[in-house]
């Protein structure tokens, strides 16, 4: 029965649960016991039984760690793993890396660093990668939370969780807090489906945490969204996400760089010309290109398990199977938003 009711518990959680149940039993028999001070009479211990009820009561205070923990990561993505986006890498260095590693220079000349940056653009264009790379390169810790997960996993306690995330970030500073799919937790007020009040309260929590960020030097918030037009504009006011940057679908040059990254470890035939492939991949995002390269490799293996190299014909075959995820319309849509926000690159 216990095994059934402890779905999602890892070993450490089960150990904590058993300990808590034992403590519960002790407190039941000896309500005034001070476990730091007192030795327990062995006779009492001998008669002490941990009951099913002790376990059930303990379940209320021990949650599975996957849901409880805010994980601090140390990412391992480097600038050179990201093809293209050169200007963006430079601005991220300025906005994120400088304040984290040179806060005293900002103080000396008397300007406030940005507290947050919002990356927007179509899916698979490298927003997450950029955030991880800037954490790696500035030797910062990294806490990543998905908007949709905050709502589903932490339902009913999401504000508390957000406060906890900021608390952890302060403790682990220098630290980058990454809110992926931030539109899910910060939709335009009153527009959220389901529980508008929950999201409104969450936005307020994020706002007040970000307002307090001056004192918490060494914490930078990065948000990412595919739908900035659905976001609460309160988050875009100065002093919050004061940098709002478009991560566009890659142009031909950027696609060549991305192809270079993803074919870097492949054994390529001489007839594979990345420049040519870059021309043929209009509309492909970074993520699409990654899938395309893998597909070309798989097609080569299908042809012959002993094949030595992946050739152009394999890529041509792969191009027929993997479609681009963006259209000229997508590009236009994001350009328009960038213009409206006035802060696109
Ligand atoms: P987003 O956060 O914008 O949805 P991600 O950063 O998660 O996109 O990218 C998904 C995957 O696509 C990455 O793991 C990477 O393999 C590939 N990718 C996307 N953009 C690039 C890029 N500019 N250079 C190299 N790989 C990329």
UniProtKB/TrEMBL annotation:
At the top level of its lineage, which domain of life is listed?
A: Archaea
- Domain annotation AAA+ ATPase: ranges: 113-251
Q: Which family does it belong to?
A: Belongs to the AAA ATPase family. CDC48 subfamily.
Name of this chain's protein: Cell division cycle protein 48 homolog MJ1156
Shown chain mapped onto the complete sequence: 403 to 747 of 761
